[in-house]
Write a structure and sequence with these properties.
236 residues; eight-stranded antiparallel β-barrel; elongated
Amino acid sequence: TASPLRWDGIVLGASYGYNSMTTDFGSATGSSIAYILRNSTLESEANPSGWTTLPNKVTTSNQWGGFLGYNWQMEQLVLGVDIGYNHPSSLDSSTADSISRIVTTSDSVTHHVTLVSSASLMLTDYGTLRARAGYAFGQFLPYAMLGAAVGRFNYANSATVTDVQTGAIVGTFGPVTQTDGQSDIFSVGFVGGAGIDVAITPNVFLRGEWEYIYFSAVNGIKPSLNTVRAGLGIRF
């Protein structure tokens, strides 16, 4: 039976939700370590810049946002596209750790290497462009979505390398520290998720949805975002 409600037209609304950001810091300081050990036998053979020094971290925050889109309805099939803007209250993740290894290179030098690293990442805000496909019945419109996202990030990294050498060469390299950081770095991502719109009048609806975004790496830091949100929208 065809839905007695119409879902086609322009849709506009606001939302409030909860973010959970998982940040993979494993490669965050790799470029800094590679710079410190550039042109060295240690780096070319043992590759300390590729060692995983830092763990993953999970950070949570509330967020607010809004959306604007358009729906096309063909009987009970509803297709739509929307753009969205979301601003987390405080989505800032940081970590620090160290790793030590003993390696012997081809020049008969034994290296007692210690890496001390720290990194932080903050998601300032992000926008989405999503395509939606849903099935209307009664006052309900469940849907799935796919699309793209652009996030704005701030990051800061620091790495310190100390290499105590024995064997053919005896001595100590370091500690040498390299830092790196930047604000307002943009990263693109993939969006997927599902939700449901519930009509409370012919032109006003409630929205509930789950959204997942996988962002491209920000200077070696790999963030992903899970969001659950509720919204209020109008159709006209």
